[in-house]
Amino acid sequence: MASDDVFRQILDPAARADPYPLYAELRETPVFRREDGTWVVSTYREIVELLHDPRISSDRRNLAHRPEGDVADGMGGVSFIATDPPEHDRLRRLAVRHFGPPHSAGRVEALRPEMLAVTTELIDGLTGHTRADLVDEVAYPLPVTVICRLLGVPREDEPRFHAWADAVVESLGPGEEDRAEREQARAEAVSKLQTYLADLAAARRDAPGDDLLSGLVTYEGPEGRMSPVEVIATSALLLIAGHETTVNLITNGMLTLLRHPELIKRLRAEPDLIVTTVEELLRYEPPVHFLSSRVALADIPIAGTTIPAGAPVVLVLASGSRDPAHVSHPDTFDPDRRYSEHLGFGGGIHYCFGAALARLEGQIALQQLVNRLVNPRLVEDPPPYRPSATLRGPRHLLVDFDAVSPAGP
Amino acid sequence: MRVVIDLTRCQGYGQCAYLAPEVFTMHGDEAVAYDPEPDEAQREHVLRAAAACPVQALHVDRNTMRHWTAPVRRLGDGSGGAVRDGHIVIVGGSLAGGRAAGVLRREGFTGRLTVIGEETHEPYDRPPLSKQILTRRVPAAHARLPRLREVEAEWIPGNPATGLDLSTKTVRLADGREVAFDRVLIATGTRARPWPHEAEAALEGVHVLRTLEDATGLREALAAGPERVLVIGGGFTGSEVASACRELGLPVTLVERGPAPLVGALGGVIGRIAGDIQRDHGVDLRCGVTVSSLEGDGAGRLRRARLSDGSTVEAQVAVVALGAVRNVEWLRGSGLAAGPWGVACDAGCRAVDVNGLVTDDVFVAGDIARFPHPVFHYQFMALEHWGNAVAQAEVAAHNMVSDQAHRWPHLSLPVFWSSQFGVNIKSVGVPTLADQLVVTQGSVSARRFVAVYGYKGRITAAVTFDQAIWLEFYQRLIERAAPFPPDFRHVDMRRDTGPGPAEVPERALAGEGATVVVTGHDPAERSASLLYGEL
């Protein structure tokens, strides 16, 4: 029962700044049952096994006891994040077709110049200042601009969908006790977002562009096409996930680097280092801490216990990536690790759809910030955090600096 | 720069193809092809791709093949009994031999190390030879493996071993030199089984595919635009060559003795699916027939083949893909249990002599090793798989420098992979040790599925078509001897095939060509000897 207390503490906003000691306590019982019947998995090996276990469903309709008011998919309608194969595979393939290999292999890479230009412009905007909130000035606007461009969503509509997306994100979380209320708040926001995207999809259907939304509404292949409901659900998922997660990667990244000033020096001198720095960030301070909507389809024997069929399962990704049984000195931030496998983007068939995009955005934003902010310092440590324990990151990151260097060649 | 993907580990996430699209390309959902020696200008992209691989299967410049981040136990840590000096000789400089050399140094072996290779190249990777090199996606020479590390070793290339003397502990080389050893690793692998009729095999246009030179020659022959290519044998190599030909737009006829391609490895049920895929891609597939003869024109160029059903195939290029022959001839008379089956060894890679006794200083790894696998009833098996060569070399090298208390068994389950016609086929376990088969996940008609093999009520193998991400789950079921058919609920449960017979062919005995004779009565004088026929 001690573990249940630990889990409650993790969900408490007071633990947001440093949940890692609590994760270490969780790992003492790699797989345990909460009082509400949720099974929590916190060790690397067990998480990886379950991510690749076909007896684990992402469709909450498989729960033995569904809370009243629960909807199948908080993102609105049926998107691939909340479905199982074969539906999942069909929907994801129809979406990947317009985003990645083999059909759109160069698409993410082709966004690089634009990402760099947007980042440069955002940091240029800090010139003349000596203090900035990096969340509002850089970490949030960069991914939102990129995902808008990619999806074909007008950037000027951002204030509208940002409020809806925030409401959705804050409703995500492990635990069943207040899920019904959270689901309701989420459903309201989702419904507004759906209406917005439905109008946009209709417009793209009439006049397609080269954006992803146009691809989703127009493509028809051997496996058929996405239904209008599926298009809306998929684009809502990509819009929300595309900008509510990368903001944390960039912000957690700057926070971590500012706590390791020697790395800032190294990053200025060793441009290749940013690649492994971002990987280590995904392990050490990941944007997504939990996967909390999985369900056991059968009795699953694991780590000396058995998760019963129909039970909700929470995978604590951020704990698994710091499991000392998997990685040596897990609480040390070390971008020189080699062959570092982590759970920063999950794993298995639900591996983060936008991982490549997030990696590039993180690499570009952090490299530019490090290169251009002269003598950056944290104003407060820890900074204030967003309430969500799932998508965890600072709400603000105030940084003082002496000046802003001009953009490099 | 040099790149290799450990495709045994790869699960087809495709992250490399997002981040370095000019080096890594996806063929279909899951199969990845790449340039093993990309241009230096791609370095930044390749490093991003390597860092991003979710299973860290991508190795750049250095090939450490380490997949755990916790510290490795090294020699010299007080474990005792370790061999750190002396002279170790590795016979065979390909994947297993090259890998063992690196592992020996990693394990802390500081003595003299000699690698004897038949070929003149440094170790290269063979899988690209039947794929991206044939299709000219990458230059012919682009197959060298990343160096394990700068191995301090004496390399003797182009000078194959011709004999092994256990009494004097020496290896004899083709140039007459004798190399003395304290411990020796036998990793001479296999060679392509040639077309049995010598004169026909010598016709211009008749190829085998095993070495870099073979691949270069075949690539040129395909580039010349033959009117038709004949592939003899529908195993993995033959099927991949047919796939490459279709990718090049060349008409191709594949002749397979069995009822379908891949039957020998995967059984009739899966073989038929592979056959359907081939036909859908325009392969003229002829099963249940053999090639009776190859005929040339007056200038000694291949013109046509006569098949056992009386038909003929007009073709200018023929690829003989009839499997491999183990390179054991140099071990004749050595006193080891070496024959057409390979070189017998224990699960710790120590060679077995002709009497079935385990030797202390002779080790075996790779395609040539025949070892008992505890998971499969201690049956002796030789596995001609990339992943086995790597894993077994690792175990052999470790055991060569470890004392009895610290030896490892080679217990990893066989895993292999093949990409053909845009489909990634992977398997774990031993599909030929099966009486039943069921498609658990996915659908045969969609050609994305997981097929599970069972033998006497236990799961023994699984094969995936574009579903590699699930393979490790089934590997754990095999390791736990889980019941067949699987009796649990899971995602994507369509069950459109089976459970039913797996249609695995009767196994041919490997001993053809050598006979064991036992002499003597008293236990102290009883002994076995090997009588060789034609290999």
UniProtKB/TrEMBL annotation, chain A:
* Pfam family of the protein (one): p450
Q: What are the record keywords, sorted? A: Heme, Iron, Metal-binding, Monooxygenase, Oxidoreductase
Which residues span the membrane? Answer: none
Taxonomically, the superkingdom here is: Bacteria
Q: InterPro entries from the xrefs?
A: Cyt_P450, Cyt_P450_B, Cyt_P450_CS, Cyt_P450_sf
- GO MF annotation list: heme binding; iron ion binding; monooxygenase activity; oxidoreductase activity, acting on paired donors, with incorporation or reduction of molecular oxygen
Which family would the database say this protein is a member of? Belongs to the cytochrome P450 family.
Quote the protein name from its UniProt record: Cytochrome P450
Q: Which organism is it from?
A: Nonomuraea rhodomycinica
TrEMBL record, chain B:
Names of required cofactors: FAD
* GO-annotated cellular components: cytoplasm
| Any Pfam family the entry gives | Fer4_15
Keywords on record: FAD, Flavoprotein, Oxidoreductase
Which branch of life, at top level? Answer: Bacteria
Q: What is this protein called?
A: FAD-dependent oxidoreductase
Q: Does the keyword Oxidoreductase apply?
A: yes
Q: Which GO terms describe its molecular function?
A: oxidoreductase activity, acting on NAD(P)H
This protein's species is Nonomuraea rhodomycinica
Which positions are tagged coiled coil?
none
What is the taxonomic lineage of the source species? Bacteria, Bacillati, Actinomycetota, Actinomycetes, Streptosporangiales
